[in-house]
Specification:
This protein is mainly α and 367 residues long. It has 16 helices and 2 strands. It is globular and about 85 Å long. The chain crosses the membrane at residues 24-42, 63-84, 96-117, 129-151, 157-180, 200-219, 225-249, 256-280, 286-308. Residues 345-354 have a biased composition (Basic and acidic residues). It comes from Scylla paramamosain. It is found in: Membrane.
Length: 367
């Protein structure tokens, strides 16, 4: 046979799988440990009396569950039809990734964002816990109901083990923190944990965003304009829907923030696992492009809100020293602690020679 001689021609199906990468495993364990620490700090920080009040009148968790398990699956299903309306295998695969992402329970990052944005951490933690428990029934219900509508030939696998691990990783560290707080209320340890809450939340979110992005760099090769639109649209619609429904029930600002963030921030790892276990490789990895996009773009609206909030607080604190602590009026130069309104009032009193309760002075003025 001659060199470079063609011996046969034809088409052959070929698939290219991802190279096994231990870095993703390391990332999973590192984030698991840091998230457990954050949950412990949350347990040390939350107000148990507020939690009891929410449990007695669980309007917030009920609204959150409705938004998360009724609104979000329907929004993701409709958004998938709008952006990926074709009937090809790839289009249906992307619709499936979109829909499964909308069916996921709330993620641990929602509690961190709620804390940083000044929302009700107590309500957020309770909603995450309730949401994760409800996911044992809601995720299979939605996946097995509308999942076959998108891909009728898929044999869906529900990752109950991963959901259970999520529940355990939430309950144990948070529960330990709650027990220690109840055992040592107001102690130095509790105050220290409260101070460390914000730095640890920020550190964990930065770790997830940077290290996670590096570990899943291959997802960027699957992005197009529709992926970008979907990655921003779904969490933003979740924030909006949750906030609107919370406002309709006349919740205060802190609880509106908690419900909105809890609705928009979801545990997309569940969607990733379902796709990888349900759809054969490499199609499963391709379908993870949308959950990956949601992981990447979910923080963007929250970062904007955080910047606005921090800017407002900085501006308010910067100008608060120009206001009198008692009257809220501007101080008169050269007269510390005396406002213009108070000065005018004092001069009027001095003209009368006595206070307003001195009836003799008033009668003499009239005469």
């Amino acid at each position: 046979m001659k060199v470079n001689e063609t011996v046969a021609e034809g088409e052959m199906a070929m698939t290219v799988k991802l190279k096994s990468d231990n870095l993703i495993t390391i990332y999973t364990y590192v984030v698991g440990v840091t998230t457990a620490v954050v949950y412990f700090l949350m347990g040390m920080t939350i107000d148990l009396q507020v939690v009891k009040g929410i449990a007695k009148r669980p309007v917030g968790p009920a609204v959150g569950i409705f938004c998360q398990y009724i609104m979000m699956p329907l929004i993701s299903f409709g958004l998938g039809l709008a952006l990926y309306s074709g009937d090809s295998f790839e289009e249906r695969l992307m619709r499936l990734g979109m829909f499964l992402s909308g069916c996921c329970p709330g993620g641990g990052a929602s509690n961190m964002w709620t804390h940083l944005l000044g929302g009700s951490l107590d309500l957020s933690c309770m909603m995450t816990c309730v949401s994760t428990f409800v996911s044992f029934a809601s995720v299979p219900l939605w996946v097995l109901t509308l999942g076959p509508v998108i891909m009728s030939d898929a044999d869906f696998v529900i990752p109950y083990i991963d959901i259970t691990i999520t529940v355990i990783s939430l309950i144990i560290p948070c529960g330990v923190g709650i027990l220690l707080q109840a055992k040592f209320p107001g102690s130095k340890m509790v105050r220290f944990c409260s101070k460390m809450m914000s730095p640890f939340c920020a550190m964990n979110l930065i770790l997830i965003f940077t290290f996670g992005t590096y570990c899943y760099l291959y997802i960027f090769t699957l992005f197009d304009w529709r992926t970008l639109v979907a990655g921003i649209a779904l969490p933003t619609l979740g924030y909006t829907a949750g906030s609107i429904f919370a406002a309709l029930f006349r919740m205060d600002t802190a609880r509106i923030i908690a419900v909105g963030v809890e609705t928009g921030v979801q545990n997309y790892t569940i969607a990733l696992v379902i796709l990888i276990l349900t759809v054969s490789s490499p199609a499963g990895e391709i379908a993870t492009a949308l959950p990956g996009a949601f992981m990447l773009f979910t923080p963007l609206p929250l970062l904007i809100l955080l910047f606005i909030r921090k800017s407002y607080l900085w501006y308010r604190n910067r100008h608060s020293d120009k206001l009198s602590p008692s009257t809220g009026l501007k101080d008169v130069p050269g007269k510390t602690g005396v406002s213009k309104g108070v000065a005018h009032h004092q001069s009027d009193v001095e003209k009368k020679g006595s206070g307003i309760d001195n009836l003799a002075a008033e009668l003499s003025d009239k005469v």
